[in-house]
Automatic annotation (TrEMBL):
This is Sec-independent protein translocase protein TatA. Pfam families: TatA_B_E. PANTHER family: SEC-INDEPENDENT PROTEIN TRANSLOCASE PROTEIN TATA (PTHR42982). It is a single-pass membrane protein.
Length: 75
């Protein structure tokens, strides 16, 4: 059903939305959508960085602790 919507159909929908809601509300809505996309991208990047940091920290812990448990107890 949605496969047959072309450029003229999308333009018609855009005009109807502008007439119904007005330019101010539509531009405000698009601004909020942009802020939401930016916040989503920032969250994804922060999550990825956090995962990489945890992996690097775990790798560092594994490679630096090579002392046997019995030697640790002696000290």
């Amino acid at each position: 059903m949605l496969n047959n919507i072309g450029i003229p159909g999308l333009l018609l929908i855009a005009v109807v939305v502008l007439v119904l809601f007005g330019r101010g509300k539509v531009s405000g809505l698009m601004g909020e959508v942009g802020k939401g996309i930016t916040a989503f991208k920032k969250g994804v990047n922060d999550g990825t960085k956090e995962i990489e940091d945890e992996a690097a920290e775990a790798e560092t812990e594994v490679t630096t602790d090579v002392t046997a448990q019995t030697e640790k107890d002696k000290v």
